[in-house]
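Students often ask what a 'structure token' actually looks like in practice. Rather than answer in the abstract, let us consider Helix-turn-helix domain-containing protein, a protein of 151 residues. Its sequence is given first.
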Amino acid sequence: MFDIAPAGDGRGSAPDAEPFAAAAPLPPLSADMFAPGCPARGMPIRIGEKWSGLVVVCLADGPRRFSELKVPLRGVTPKVLTDTLRALERDGMITRTAYEEMPPRVEYALTGLGRSLLGPIAACREWAMTHLPELMAARDAYDDANGRAAS
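Now compare that with the structural description of the same chain:
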């Protein structure tokens, strides 16, 4: 398992400040830092996986059908949305209810466990809104320094 201790107020440091002023060399990273038993290995919302958190937010107000979810999630393919919904269902974050009607109807809804993600997701969204200008400036500076076109 690993510890992440926030420095200062958690908002980062001034652009010209050194990120770490270590008085002594840092200890080496452990090969077991992310061992198979580490809780971080089973995280349902993966940092690089962009659709799960968005689906959770889409379901915050109540059950939705697949076609309803596709509207705000422009750009997600049906396969990726299906895979995301299955992964969230497997992790106990959502339920899938199929109604025996003609035409068939399927709805997805948050479980209590899934609803518990709304607070952390809101905190991430707030952080992003606060720091987006800094993030974009850092990307632009990196791209300028490395001769890359802005993405």
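One point worth highlighting: Confidence is low (pLDDT under 50) at residues 1-14. Ask yourself how you might have guessed this from the sequence alone, and why that guess would often be unreliable.
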